[in-house]
């Protein structure tokens, strides 16, 4: 039978001009940004794959909702709508709106964290880790072994390693575990999905040791797509039912609505535990805003309520995952090493293998990110030793487990020809790979250094 092209399941109503700066300009812009793409201006970029967070195009329904936004300080109708949609999806009774995911993390982990506490996750996202460490607690990642090998196929490479998880509980003592956090999909681990079986097994271990189980669920719809496709017994369920089942396994969730709620700003914390919710709500009111708006305007809450329903549309999810796979597969066919299979929201390239002559302490991922900008005005993000590298007590450099570069795809923003342009740029990247050199950091802050660090290219 004729295999149909997966088309964008929408037509375009508003357009935004993009422009490719000349090569000379791009070199100058990058130098001025201290070779850190986070410091580039968006107008200097033609295709922006820095993040899928808050970069989505909203639907006409969401824009219509924006007009309905109720901006009342207390008891806004828009909050009722947002709360009802989240309640229906998660089943959790206590819901708190926040301006984005990390604000929800702050509410929860400042309560559950503190010195002596330990958190366990399949992989903590960087703001999650930073919130935990900032409270004085420790964050331990327990990804599965296969998840650390870019080339090895596994349908659920985002899973938690249950043996490592149990060993960590025994090592630190159940009474010291602040929470177990399952990140779906596993962003820092390659946008890879977590199976329902794994989510259930994590829940069983949590119950065995009396631990609190939290989902970091910002890409749970994308995760549900993979479960339906790849996990036995889910082929007949709807994506929403799959997500609901996963929520039912945990006792709370944190969501950055900037991902799978397809909005530009927003987040929430939802909990089963009333006492904990009361404590978090106090912090919410002190740091974010009153309980019925958090850090959000009424119109944001409307857009979230609508986006959280649209995201489970099978046409949307199929297009979403297939278009990410299209980009990844084409780049892979050119011979660029990457995490296989391709994840949900992004393609993760293996810069360590791509540039074998650049050691981790010279940041091969940063080199790739800078080359892509120089070649084609494309912006993307390093997820390697710039983001996760450390120095030990003796000041020795400790590299990250992998040196990755992430091409994150904004939702409903770019068309297939934009992606073809990105694929072409990789052809050129391959031609020049031996000539590329690494970078050194010239300035760095104590936390989340990738956002603001300055770099300098190393000379050949
Ligand atoms: N958890 C995960 C898994 C995330 O990917 C993010 C954000 C957050 C929490 C924090 O949410 O940005 O709304 O405060 N990830 C973005 C990214 C920034 O580019 O992957 P936030």
Key traits:
460 residues; alpha/beta; Aspartate Aminotransferase, domain 1; Aspartate Aminotransferase, domain 2; 2 domains; seven-stranded mixed β-sheet; three-stranded antiparallel β-sheet; 16 helices; 16 strands; 14% strand; globular; binds ligand F0G
CATH topology of the largest domain: Aspartate Aminotransferase, domain 2
Q: In DSSP terms, counting alpha (H) and pi (I) runs of 4 or more, how many helices?
A: 16
Quick one: overall form? Answer: globular
Give the overall pLDDT as a whole number.
96
Number of strands: 16
Per CATH, the class of the largest domain reads Alpha Beta
Look at the helices and sheets and give the structural class: alpha/beta
* Ligand types: ligand F0G
Major β-sheet, in short? 7 strands, mixed
Strand content: 5-15%
Strand order of the largest sheet: 2-8-7-6-5-3-4
Write down the Rg.
Answer: 21 Å
Percent range of helical residues: 40-55%
Measure the end-to-end span: 54 Å
Q: Could you list the spans in which at least 5 consecutive residues all have pLDDT below 50?
A: none
Report the CATH architecture of the largest domain.
Answer: 3-Layer(aba) Sandwich
CATH superfamily of the largest domain: Type I PLP-dependent aspartate aminotransferase-like (Major domain)
Query: How many domain modules?
Result: 2
């Amino acid at each position: 039978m004729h295999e149909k092209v997966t088309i964008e399941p929408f037509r375009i109503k508003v357009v935004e001009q993009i422009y490719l700066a000349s090569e000379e300009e791009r070199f100058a812009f990058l130098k001025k940004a201290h070779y850190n793409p986070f410091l580039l201006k968006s107008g200097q970029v033609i295709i922006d794959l820095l993040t899928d967070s808050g970069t989505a195009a909203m639907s006409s329904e969401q824009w219509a909702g924006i007009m309905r936004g109720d901006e009342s300080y207390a008891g806004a109708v828009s909050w009722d709508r947002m709360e009802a949609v989240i309640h229906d999806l998660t089943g959790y009774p206590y819901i708190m709106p926040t301006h984005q995911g990390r604000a929800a993390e702050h509410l929860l982990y400042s309560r559950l964290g503190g010195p002596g506490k330990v958190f366990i996750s399949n992989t903590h996202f960087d703001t999650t880790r930073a919130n935990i460490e900032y409270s004085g607690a420790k964050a331990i990642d327990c990804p599965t072994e296969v998840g650390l090998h870019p080339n090895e196929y596994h349908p659920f490479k985002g899973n938690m390693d249950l043996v490592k998880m149990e060993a960590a509980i025994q090592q630190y003592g159940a009474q010291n575990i602040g929470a177990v956090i399952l990140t779906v999909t596993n962003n820092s681990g390659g946008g890879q999905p977590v199976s329902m079986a794994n989510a259930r097994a994590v829940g069983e271990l949590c119950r065995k040791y009396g631990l609190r189980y939290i989902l970091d669920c910002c890409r749970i719809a994308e995760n549900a797509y993979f479960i339906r496709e790849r996990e036995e017994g889910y082929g007949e369920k709807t994506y929403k039912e799959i997500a609901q089942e996963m929520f039912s396994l945990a006792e709370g969730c944190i969501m950055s609505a900037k991902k799978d709620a397809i909005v530009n700003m927003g987040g929430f914390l939802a909990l089963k535990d009333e006492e904990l919710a009361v404590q978090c709500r106090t912090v919410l009111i002190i740091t974010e805003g009153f309980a019925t708006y958090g850090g959000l305007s009424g119109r944001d809450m409307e857009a979230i309520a609508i986006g959280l329903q649209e995201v489970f549309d099978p046409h949307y999810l199929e297009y979403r995952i297939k278009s990410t796979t299209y980009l990844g597969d084409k780049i892979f066919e050119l011979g660029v090493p990457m995490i296989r299979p391709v994840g949900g929201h992004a393609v993760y390239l293996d810069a360590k293998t791509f540039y074998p002559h650049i050691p981790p302490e010279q940041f091969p991922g940063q080199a790739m990110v800078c080359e892509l900008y120089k070649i084609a005005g494309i912006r993307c993000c390093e997820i390697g030793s710039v983001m996760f590298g450390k120095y030990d007590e003796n000041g020795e450099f400790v590299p990250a487990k992998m040196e990755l570069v992430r091409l994150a795809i904004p939702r409903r923003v770019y068309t297939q020809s934009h992606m073809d342009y990105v694929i072409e740029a990789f052809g050129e990247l391959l031609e020049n790979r031996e000539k590329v050199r690494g970078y050194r950091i010239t300035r760095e802050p104590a936390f989340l250094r990738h956002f603001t660090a300055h770099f300098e290219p190393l000379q050949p």
